Amino acid sequence: MKIRFLLCLLVLFSFSALTTTGCGRQSTRVDIKDDEEGPESSGPYSADLVEVTDMMVEKLKKQKISENFQSRYKEPPIIAIIRPQNDTRFPEVTQIFQEDLLTAMMEKFTREQFRFSQRDSDVQTAVASEKEAKEAGERTDRTGRKTKLGADYFMKAKFSTLSMTDGKLEDDTILYTFELIDTETDELIFKGGHKIRRVSSKSAVYR
Amino acid sequence: MRAPVALSLVLLLALAAGCQSVYDAKAAMQKGGYTQVMMDTQDYQAYPERDQTLILNYRAHAKMGLGYLDSARADYFRAWNMMNHGDGGGVAAANWFSERQKWWMGDPYERAFNSWYLGCLYFQAGKFEDGMACFRNAIFVDTGDLKQGEFAADWLPAFIMRMRCFLTRGDTGSVQMLLDEVNKLEKDKANFDPKLPWLTLEAQKDANVVLMVELGQGPYFTAEGHHGSVRAINQGEYKEAWAEVFVDGKSLGSTYKIGDTFYQAITRGGRVMDDILKGKAIAKTTMIATGATAMAVGHAVGGKGGAVAMGVGAVILLGGLLMNAEADTRGNVLLPGETHLMMAKAAPGQHDLELRYYDASGRELRDMRQTGLKLDVPETGDAMLLLRSRPHYSVPDSAAAKAADPYAGLAKKP
Fold it and tell me: Which of A149-158, B2-11, B263-272 has the lowest mean pLDDT?
């Protein structure tokens, strides 16, 4: 009887050890808009990414950027993304917001409304080498088009922040803005902004 | 009788766990330099959770010192996330047992250094906007509650590199703004050299070579005073006082101090934990004295009442003995004592770079001389290097070397 009891204890102990140490670790799929899960920070959350992208697409629609351009040139504007500006204190933030907005724009607008020029340096190198091979007759050239897309508008992400701390709380208000700039005249055609403030607590006895 | 013995054993084990010393990076450096540290920390998750942020900073530093810049950047970023987005932990346990039960999150200067190194690695990889954010965070974490008159950021390296980032955007207005801020700081030579010649817009615009030269060993902590409850900050010992930079055999002059790690460590105010430790030390002494007195009285009285008094006294005595008031002495011991700066203008292309280090009396420390370095100056932008007197940082000579797997070809630690 005693041995059975001890065995039960051993099993229970092993189970609790497994669930509290690495062996029982698992990752959980969490809704992208869920603010409650994950570490507490005053930096950008995934929910902010969704919110900012949605707001920007809405603003672009509202301001009829494409329609206005087409009424003048009878063609959709061509947009190229340029280097973002990150004036927050959080690294590796601008790229995902920029990529998310670009993806959303390509999903929400047709090619008859906006066109995009892919300017990533690795893509530019690959395009140049492909064009060279076509011109040398090493590769077929179906379209006969020789010229790369010239941008009508540059799109630029600009994030800035108001950051404060008293040692117990960290308070960051991030202003997310996206600009469309006329590539000929440098006129600011569009500037959409969205502010999100987050405050996170730090344990007072931590230091 | 068995239950109290078992309880005592459990408590002693808990006490021992609390006192367990953290990885000795200094000893590892003496044994085998950055390679030893990198190998020891390969599986950083094998260390107690409370130490992992520190271990990860060590691993990143070792990789950076060996020239594995991409891998170092990934480690520093992981540590950055833990230090800036993490809540830490172990605070409740630290209130009774050792303060080392707390997750190490670093003092303000250690957090600033984490952001600083990460920023420099981004900058060297051409990711200027990410570098910019890191330098801003280095300034942010080095700032106290300004409304309460606490410390303001005064560690120049982050300001200087933030200026270099602004220049990559052509934003001279923001450079001037930062210069104004820096020029308002108290010119205290314990913090930086007041004669620093690059605190003007013209000097910043003119330069395209930025060398950050680290000298000596940074501060370290010891537990002193009543029950070791006082955390003392000690200055690292080193001879080197400045460096002379040669490009293609021609001297550019001496470096200027822009950051003093010991100064940063001692000017960041007291900790909340200091008061807790003080209280714990008093409580520990009181409990030991009370417990011993109760046991002595119980013994003298004898009988049933005496036995009860002895039992209660024993519990209080044991509690007092188990209470650990010792200050946490964990700290990043790989940090330098000082950060120096050399800025210059050089023609685009590759140049030979040499560094000579001198003590305070101007005598060269020949064993530290660093030769055979290559300085690649781009057509536009900066050539930026992080260098160190001892042990020297390796400067990778290609993108492939920067991106190499640090553990390729090395036997995994058993």
Answer: B2-11
What is the tens place of the pLDDT at every residue in B352-384?
Answer: 999 999 999 999 999 999 999 999 999 999 999
Q: Do A167 and B80 count as a contact with CB atoms less than 8 A apart?
A: no
Q: Is B179 a domain residue?
A: yes
Residue B217 belongs to some domain of the structure: yes
Which residues on chain B are in Cβ contact (under 8 Å) with A93? 133
Domain assignment of residue B113, yes or no:
yes
Kindly indicate whether the ipTM for this predicted assembly is greater than 0.90, answering yes or no: no
DSSP state of B200: S
Alpha helices in A74-154 (DSSP H): 94-108, 121-135
**Overall number of domains in chain B:** 1
Pairs across A and B, CB distance < 8 A: 80
Of A43, A91, A202, the CB nearest to B118: A91
Name the pTM for this structure: 0.88
**Top-confidence residue, A105 or A20:** A105
CATH for B174 = 1.25.40.10
Q: For A86, which of B80, B133, B273 is closest by C-beta distance?
A: B133
| Interface contact A166-B145, CB threshold 8 A | yes
Edge-to-edge strand ranges of the sheet holding B240-247: B250-254, B240-247, B349-359, B370-377
**What is the CATH architecture assignment of A39-200?**
3-Layer(aba) Sandwich (3.40)
Q: What is the nearest CA distance from B131 to chain A, expressed in angstroms? A: 7
Q: Taking the C-alpha atoms of B277, B279, B281 and B284 in order, what is their torsion angle to the nearest 10 degrees?
A: -130
